[in-house]
Amino acid sequence: MRKTFFCIDSHACGNPVRVVAGGGPLLPHLPVAERRALFVRDHDWIRTALMFEPRGHDVMSGAIFYPPWRDDCDVAVVFIEVSGCLPMCGAGTIGLSTVLIEEGLVSPRVPGTLSLETPAGRVDVTYRMDGDKVAEVRLFNVPSYLHAADVAVDVPGTGRLVVDIAYGGNFYAVVEPQDNWPGLDIGPSAIIDLSQKLRTALADVIDPVHPEDDRIRGVHHAIWCDAPRGEADGRGAVFYGEKAIDRSPGGTGTSARMAQLHGKGRLAVGGRYRNESLIGTIFDGRVESEVAIGSFTGIRPSLGAWARIIGHNTIFVDDRDPLFKGFQIG
């Protein structure tokens, strides 16, 4: 049997985002967190087929959109990534929002603002048009917070690292420059190797659980921080999946970084944090307000960014192909 998927491919400040506009599975009309669980249980082969090789690659992000369950949202989204079905993806949201508006797939209830129901909660995106194109967007992300500060972990081959655990839609190990972290100039391959070892070591030290949704737990991402270049306030490389480094500055990663800085008293409400990626693109972060998240005090972050549509893509997945579910090397 051959399944056909119509996808609109884009990139958000360099990170690829594949939006499934046709061929996605029909799911019951439920809150999107429940639809996400059903997708993971019954349809995860679609994620791997579209994200992994030979149809994707190690740094793919993607999204499938549905009618919303919430009355205050325009659309619901299930994020499909090389690393799984994430609760939230910043680059994915920026790419998806640009595609939905520019391609006329959704008519927002409030012109200039798109409200998305994500598994992590409601996310609003404001957008500015340049003719019939989306020039830029600002993503108002889910409440983010510093979960644990100064967590010491021994990483094989590297030694002791002290990291902060912060949430920005996913849990992150936030690693600032220190004796055993020389900075981003060590290169992507070394960062990937170090990230894999750090994640494994952290699993024996801490298992964070979101205070308002126990389905969101565990440290699966890392953001490696370094000194700024040019007009940026900092640089960061976001690690996710098995061996992916985000080409953008990372939406949930930049949010987690701002939450970490705020939690440590280094970034005030109204403060700005411009985060630069490995390829030089920038997310313009801002702390919009202070919020309570369970017993934690966190922030509502926003990110200014842009995305571009790069093509329409009809993808065939044929079960006669022994690699129809996709594959990863290593």
Key terms:
single chain; 330 residues; alpha+beta; 17-stranded mixed sheet; two-stranded antiparallel ribbon
Question: Which helices and strands occur, and which strands form pairs?
Answer:
Elements: E1 2-12, E2 15-22, H1 32-42, H2 44-51, E3 61-66, E4 75-81, H3 90-102, E5 113-118, E6 121-130, E7 133-140, E8 145-155, E9 159-167, E10 171-175, H4 188-202, E11 209-210, E12 213-217, E13 221-226, E14 234-240, E15 244-245, H5 251-263, E16 272-276, E17 282-293, E18 296-305, E19 307-318
Parallel strand pairs: 2-3, 4-5, 10-13, 14-16
Antiparallel strand pairs: 1-2, 1-19, 3-4, 5-6, 6-7, 7-18, 8-9, 9-10, 11-12, 13-14, 14-15, 16-17, 17-18
What does this entry show, briefly?
Its EC number is 5.1.1.8. With 330 residues, the protein is an alpha+beta fold. It has helices spanning 32-42, 44-51, 90-102, 188-202, 251-263; strands at 2-12, 15-22, 61-66, 75-81, 113-118, 121-130, 133-140, 145-155, 159-167, 171-175, 209-210, 213-217, 221-226, 234-240, 244-245, 272-276, 282-293, 296-305, 307-318.
Describe this structure in words.
- The protein is α+β, with helices and mostly antiparallel strands and 330 residues long.
- Helix content is 18%, strand content 43%.
- The protein is built from 5 helices and 19 strands.
- It has a 17-stranded mixed β-sheet that branches.
- A hairpin with a 3-residue loop joins strand 9 and strand 10.
- The longest helix has 15 residues, at 188-202.
- The radius of gyration is 19 Å and the shape is globular.
- The two termini are 29 Å apart.
- 49% of the residues are buried.
- The mean pLDDT is 95.
